[in-house]
Amino acid sequence: MTFDTLTLSSDILRALPAQMTTPTRIQQQAIPAVLRGSDVLALAQTGSGKTLAFGLPMLQRIDTGVNQVQGVVLVPTRELAAQVSVALNQVATPLGIKVVMLCGGVDQAQQITELENAQLVVATTGRLLDFINQGVVSLDAMTVWAMDEADRLLEMGFWPDVQRIMAAMPAKRQTLLFSATMPAALETIADSLLFKPVRIEAHEKNSVVEDIEERLYLVNKGSKAQALIALIKQHDWKQLLVFVAEKGSADALAKRLAKASLSVAALHGDKDQSAREQTLADFKAGKLKVLIATDLLSRGIHIDALPVVINADLPANAPVYVHRVGRTARAGENGLALSLVCHGETEALNAIRQLTGRELPLLELEGFPVTDKPAAESATGERKRAPRDKKANRRTNAKKSIKQFKPKGRG
Fold first, then answer.
1. pLDDT the model gives residue 183
2. Which of 189, 218, 258, 344 could form a disulfide with 362 if both were Cys (CB 3.0 to 4.6 A apart)?
């Protein structure tokens, strides 16, 4: 199948990047449905081409003679907003369609200037709602809107803002929900937004890309940093993306890796926007070997030929695991997803196994024997952490150089 069989206009076909010749499965199924004007709920694996699956028909719906916002794409993070904007502009610019990105961390005056004659807006919820309340953005002429990474936007952290944005939209509108995962708990909310929707599951719901090899190691909680360093030095990986649970953990782990002479940086929400953009650009350009991130990067971010993703911490939210490991094995490439798991993460691991339907056995990591004890179950059925095994990291401690105990000179 080729793009010209999908009822796309000749103008859109001419504007497609030269390397785009064959539509992906989600593009084949979603583009005709969106062009028919149907509401759509589309689920497809990460890296499967979802952005253009909703983006191309949205661009075709734009009336280039009307200099008002006619389409909106909502996303959960600034990084995803930037990526979606770049992908859409590849096609929009040759067509003379003005796409504007709105997100926090950028000067409002600059964005207000850019909004002049904007026809398609890609936005995070907070900044778009702010501009609607200020009267800077009007959605009166909007005909179609999409939620990218829809399940994240339906969660409580975003949902109230999404509802306020919808209140500013015309009653008659086309709604497109696209995501790689959709937990059962959010299905009812998703269905409430849609009118007689076309439901598309290009791949099995909540599934992991087949080209990803998943490998999970059971290690002591206190040994994770050393295990990570050992794995990096053992393998000749060109680059790797490491996920952690908390912002502080990202910075602390980055310091540990830097002391091990590894080229590394941390990326999380406490970094200002310019620093986040520069760090991500450096990583994409190959200037950094290791990028340590919170779940800021777990959704939608495309990094060409990224060979390895490592979960230094398992996510508490099972769908996040699918999004994290989906940063590798994109566009038909193979990839490796490693997870360092301690006994305290058993509940999170079982939730991931249940969601994905995969066994995900725990392996031993050579040189890192597990001495931590699993949580004990009380008579009431509650799980309690066993007393910490004081011998757990004795082997590691014995390896530390005596130099670190010598008093430091005053320089």
1. 81
2. 218
